Amino acid sequence: MINILENEKTFLLSTKETSMIFHVLESGHLVELYYGDRIEDNAFSYIIKDLKHASYLSDTDGIEGFKLEQMPLAYPAYGNPDLRTPAFMFEYDDGSRITDLRFDHYTCSKEKKKIKGLPTTLGPCEVITFVLTDQIRDLQVSLNISIFEQWDVFTQSVEVSNKSASTIKINSITSACLSLLEDNFQIVSLTGAWGRERMIRNSSLTQGRFLIDSKRGATGHGQSPFIALTDQNVTEDHGRIYAMNLVYSGNFKCEVEVDMHQNVRMMCGLNDFDFEWSLATQETFMTPEAVLVYARGYTQMTHRFHDFYRDCLIPRSFVHQERPVLINNWEATYFDFDGEKLRHIASEAANLGIELFVLDDGWYGQRNDIYTSLGDWQPNEKKLGQPLKQFVQEIHQQGMKFGLWFEPEMVSPQSQLFKQHPDWIIRVPFHKPQLARHQYVLDLSREEVQAFIIESISTIIRDHQVDYVKWDMNRNITDSGSFFLDHKHQKELPHRYMLGLYHVLDVLTATFPNVLFEGCAGGGGRFDPGMLKYFPQIWTSDDTDAIERLSIQKGTSLLYPCATMGAHVSAVPNHQMGRITPLKTRGVVAMMGDLGYELDITQLSKKQKDEIKQQIRFYKSIRHLITDGDYYRLENGWMFVSRDQKEALVSHVQILSQPNTVPKRLHLKGLDAASFYQIDNTIISGSALMHIGLALDQAKEDFHAQQWVIRKVENYGD
Ligand code: DGJ
Q: How far is the CA of 374 from the centre of ligand 1 (A)?
C-alpha cells in the first residue's frame, strides 16, 4: 500500500506487517525515515528534526546546521557534504565525479516490469518510482521500489538514464541502501568454502565498514549475496532482523558502514571492484534487484523469503511440483563407467522406486577424466556401448525419467571446440591463460558463444528426450579479459558475462519448459536468487556427509525454500569426510530437500536395498510437505507443517550420544495449539507438542536420527 502524505513529501509504503517511509527534504534530498514493523498514517517529518547536532560536519547548500552526513539518505551520492560511502559513483568526461541528485518526481504503478536482461521477481505488487535528477549533468536515477504487500517484502532496483550528450562512466552502483539511525545490531551472513557452503556467521558491528563480496565471476562457495542486521539477542522467534538478498549470480558486494555518530548504512549490489560501465548518451543501465525483508525472529524471516521466492521467483511450472527422487552416478562411478555398469545401476534404481536417472560427467567427447572434452557435447557411444538415444529409451521404458549433466560455460584445452575457437575463452592477450580444473571459462559476453551453447545443449535435449539437466560450473573467472570488448569496455566483462548467461538460460528454459534444470557449481558455489529464477533446484554442496549437511542445509534454509535444495544419500565411509553414519540418518537428512541417491546401489545388501525402498516410499508420501509446507528449524531438528496445520513431518538428528542425562525433548512449532494430533499410536495436543515436546530416544549411538509424521485428529474429544 502506498500512502502519500504531507504535501506529497512523505511516502508511507506498507505491506501487511511492515512499513517503509521515504521523505523529500526541503533541499530535495530523498531520505528514508523508517523501516520496520507496520505503522499507520502520521506526519513523519518530525523524525529528522533531531538530527542536526553533530559538529565538524559541512553544511549543505549554505544552510547552517543542515548536515547531509547525518541524514538517512535513500540513495547517497558522492561529491557533497555526506562523506560516508556513497551508493554509487559516476565519472564525467571532464574528470569530475560529483553527482548532485535531487528529487524530481515520483510515479506509481500496479504493474511491475521485468528488469531487462536480469532475473526479476514478479507477482502482484505496487511499484513506486522515485525519480532523482542531476540538472547539471542531465542525468536521471530512478529508484524502483516494489511493494509485495501479501509477502511482507520490498524489492528495489535502480535505473540510470544518461540524457546528456556525453558518455558517463559508472564506477560503482548499488541496488539498495538502507539507513538506520541506531547501531546496536550484529551482522549475520552466510559464508564458507567448497564443501561447507552457507554457514551462518554472526559478526559484531563496530564503527567502520564490514564487507562481504565476490570477485570470482560467480557468487561463490565462500559468500552469499545476503546480509542482515539483527538485534543482539535475536532468536528464531524474537528480535528485529533487516535482511537484504541480491537477485544476482555474479560479482556482488554487501556492506554495512557505521559512521562516527552511530548511523548505520547497509547496501548491496554489483561489486565495484574492477568494475566500470560506459553509459553512452541516451542509454540506460539497470541494476540487479535487491530483496528486502524485515522480520521478528529468524523463523519469520525465513517464511517471508521462502513464500516470496516460491510465489514470485522460482519457475511457476515447477515450484509446486513434487520433485522426482533421483539417482546420480557421480559418487557411484565418477568417470569410471560403461553402459553395462550404468544399466545395472538403472535397473536397481527402478526396482527401488527411483523416478529419475541422472547421468553425470563423462558421457561425451573423450571425457574419462578432468583433462578433456568440455565443449564437445557429442555422446561417447563407445563408452556407453550404444547410442545415447537407445540408452535413454531403455531408462524411459523402465518408468524413469532421464537426466544429463552439462557444464556449458566451460571448455577444455583438449577439445575440438577450443581448437576451432581459441579466442572464445576469457583471458588477457600476452598472458598465459590460467587453468582451473584443467578448463577455461567461455566468454559468455559474446553472442556467438551464447548461440553455440544454446544450440549444442538444445540439440542434445531435443534429440535424446532429456527430462532433466544438471547445469554444472566448476571454476571461477580468473584472468578477466575479453577478445571481443575494446579496451574501454574490459571492466564490463564480469557483468556482461552474467547478462550472457541469463540470456542463455532465458532461451533454454523457455524452449524446454518441461525440462527440470538443476543448478550446480562444484556443489553449491552459485546458490542464489538469480539462479533460482531458472533452476527450481540447486545441488547444495559436494559434501554429502549427513552431519556436515545439517549445517549446510540449515544455512541454506535461512533464505531458500527447502525444495530448492538437492540432497543425496551417499556411501559410507563418506567420500568427503570419511565419516560413517547410519543409512537411516542419511535418508532423514536428505529428506530435508529433494531426495536423491548418489552411491553404487548395485553393491548394497538386500537389507540396505529394502531400507532404501522404504525410505523412498515414505518420502513420496510426505514430499508435498517439503514442496509446499512451512518450514521450522528446531534444536538439532526441523519440521515441515502443512498450511492448514493438519499434517507435519518432524526430523531430529542427535550428533553425539551422551550418557546419564535428563530425557531430552524436542519442542515442535507451527501446530494448532488447540487441536490434537496423532503421533505413532498416541494422541497429543498441539500445545503439549509445542510446549512440553516430544520425547527423544536415549540412543547409545552417535548420529542417531528420528522422524515422525503427525496428523491432526478431527473433532477429537467433541
Ligand atoms: C561437480 C559437481 O558438484 C559434482 O556433483 C559432479 O557433477 C562433478 N562436478 C562432475 O565433474
A: 13
Q: Which of 360, 368, 438 to mutate to test the pocket of ligand 1 (most atoms within 8 A of CB)?
A: 360
Tell me the CB-side half-sphere exposure of residue 683, using CA atoms within 13 A: 9
Per-residue model confidence (pLDDT) at position 65: 86
Q: Mind listing the pLDDT tens digit for each residue in 694-717?
A: 999 989 999 999 999 999 999 887
Q: Which residues' Cβ are closer than 6 Å to ligand 1?
A: 330, 360-361, 405, 472, 474, 520, 522-523, 539, 542
Asked if omega into 659 is within 30° of 0 (cis), the reply is: no
Reduce the DSSP state of residue 461 to 3 states and report it. Answer: helix
Ligand 1 pocket, mutate which of 372, 472, 527 (most atoms under 8 A from CB): 472
- β-pairing, 153-162 vs 284-286, is antiparallel
Any idea which residues carry the catalytic annotation?
Answer: 472, 542
**Placement of cell 514470485 in the chain:** 312
Ligand 1 center from residue 703 Cα (angstroms): 26
Q: Cα(407) to centroid of ligand 1, in Å?
A: 9
Q: Which amino acid is at 265?
A: R
pLDDT given for residue 250 in this prediction:
98
Could you give the CA distance from residue 165 to residue 411 in angstroms, rounded to a whole number? 41
| Region for 717 from its dihedrals, namely left if φ exceeds 0, alpha if ψ lies in -120 to 50, beta otherwise | left
Q: What distance in angstroms lies between residue 210's CA and the mean position of ligand 1's atoms?
A: 33
**What is the average pLDDT across 130-145?**
97
Q: Tell if the pTM clears 0.85, that is, is over it.
A: yes
| Nearest ligand 1 atom, CA 360 | 7
Per-residue burial over 388-407, b if 16 or more Cβ lie within 10 Å, else e, is: beebbebbeeeebbbbbbbb
Place of cell 515441515: 640
pLDDT single digits (tens) 416-425: 999 999 999 9
DSSP-assigned beta bridge partners for residue 293: 153, 243
Taking alpha carbons only, the member of 342, 347, 389 closest to residue 362 is 342
